[in-house]
Amino acid sequence: PASVTTGIQVSPTATPAAALSKVAKVAEDYYIKKRDTAEKVESAKKVFEIKGELDKYLESEKENINDENAINNFKSKYNDYVNQQLSQVKNRRVKKRIEQNLDLELSEYVYNIKKNSYKALESESLINVNNKINSLAAKYGTTLNPILKVKFKSQAKDEMRDFASNFDLPKNVLDKKLEAIDRDFLLADMQQFIGKSNGAEQIKKL
């Protein structure tokens, strides 16, 4: 009769419903895995695209000897560009992946900015030191006053020692640079006597 109920309930672990449940679970897992893979590819592609522009910002600060200023300049451009690019991404999960990947990239950018600034500072400082030493060598070569000669040569070596201290040059590197100064100033001495009647004798005494 229609009014009679058996009281029997279908168990998903003991009937064909269990098999359907497992199939549904496999299908769901496959869909999620496929979706995650696609989102990873999409986010990686976008990060690569964004980095192409960020690399230009990094290059523009390469000669900036002030690392704090260089970092601030980069971050300002970075924030503006990244926010503009993220606003175009509609998928919330993809956007999150991009943000996480860029956060990791940012620390590397900051490191490279500091490294580049240090190299630029070292290079510019060396140019300044060489200019000072060349100026002192020129003064040295135009005077016969032995006191001034000692003064100019000592100042030149002090400039190089100061540079070595500021940039932690190894002792063997400093020693080679000091030897180069000795050679330059010796050459200046020799040039003073070239062409003079007793020039050869004077050069031998150097």
Mind sketching the topology for me?
Elements: H1 16-60, H2 67-86, H3 92-141, H4 146-166, H5 171-193, H6 199-205
Explain the overall architecture.
With 206 residues, the protein is mostly helical. The chain is built from 6 helices and no strands. The chain has helices spanning 16-60, 67-86, 92-141, 146-166, 171-193, 199-205. It is rod-shaped and about 110 Å long. The N and C termini lie far apart (130 Å).
What's the count of strands? 0
CA radius of gyration: 36 Å
Poorly predicted ranges: none
What about the largest sheet? Answer: none
**Helical stretch count?**
6
Mean pLDDT: 85
**Separation, N- and C-terminal Cα atoms:** 130 Å
Return the string of H and E elements: HHHHHH
Provide the β-strand percentage band. Answer: under 5%
Roughly how much helix do the residues carry, as a percent range? over 70%
Gross geometry: rod-shaped
Structural class: mainly alpha
